[in-house]
Design brief:
Elements: H1 2-21, E1 37-54, E2 62-65, E3 67-78, E4 83-87, E5 90-99, H2 106-109, E6 110-127, E7 134-147, E8 168-181, E9 186-196, E10 215-229
Antiparallel strand pairs: 1-3, 1-10, 2-5, 3-4, 3-5, 4-6, 5-6, 6-7, 7-8, 8-9, 9-10
């Protein structure tokens, strides 16, 4: 009985996928892209890193990256048939562990950088011609982000185990994805690269600090994997 039910579910699922994405699919949400404005939300994962540049050659700062979480809203304005303007404000949580060279004590060398960003990207989405229920696209633009965990106003620094970053950061973003038109909504997986444009490091009070003295710039770079529902 169980095998028969599983086999039946498999056949139904296979037929549904064939109808949705096969050679001769049933067209879902046929007039969706004719809307002038529409809304949605996204959930996803983020992978953040730092790009360091140094004043003098030496050992690199090691970055241990964790997987973060991001969630946000989407506002989409259709400009032309293949071009949309999108605003995607969201909240991103992540952690990066930095290990600085030159320290014998692990507690002195290690800094846990926990960041909570409010992300404000303004993007242009270039979509290909829709084929059945599939429409690939590329996306790009600029963003600014508010780091709620920056410690920018803290008078203490790394000598007191306080790592400080700039409160606001600017980025450029590029990515690609595919719109999948399902029966009741549009589902969109997308992959996006995020690249910081400005130095985010707040230097220690001592200009010769072992933590920040040799850093010329510290910029965020990351990858977002988002799943959008509209």
């Amino acid at each position: 009985m169980k095998k028969g039910i599983l086999f039946l579910l498999f056949i139904v699922s296979f037929q549904a996928q064939a109808q949705t994405f096969g050679r001769d699919p049933i067209i879902n949400l046929e007039n969706w892209d004719k809307q002038r404005v529409y809304w949605g939300y996204y959930l996803g994962m983020s992978y953040y890193d730092f790009k360091f540049e140094y004043n003098e050659p030496g050992k690199d700062i090691l970055v241990d990256n964790g997987i973060g979480f991001n969630v946000g809203l989407i506002g989409d304005l259709r400009l032309f048939k293949h071009l949309n303007l999108r605003f995607e404000p969201g909240l991103t949580f992540n952690q990066r562990d930095l290990t600085f060279p030159g320290f014998a004590n692990e507690n002195d060398a290690l800094r846990e950088v926990k960041s909570t960003y409010i992300h404000f990207p303004l993007l242009l989405k270039f979509s290909a011609t829709r084929t059945g229920n599939i429409r690939p696209f590329v996306i790009g633009g600029f963003a600014t982000a508010l780091n709620l965990s920056s410690n920018v106003n803290n008078k203490q620094d790394n000598s007191n185990n306080v790592f400080r970053m700039a409160k606001w950061t600017n980025y450029y973003e590029v990515g690609l994805g595919v719109d999948l038109y399902l029966e009741y909504f549009k589902f969109t997986p997308s992959l996006r690269g995020v690249f910081g444009m400005n130095d985010e490091l707040i230097r220690d009070n001592d200009p010769n600090s072992l933590w920040t003295g040799n850093i010329a710039s510290m910029k965020t770079r990351g990858v977002f994997l988002n799943f959008t529902f509209q």
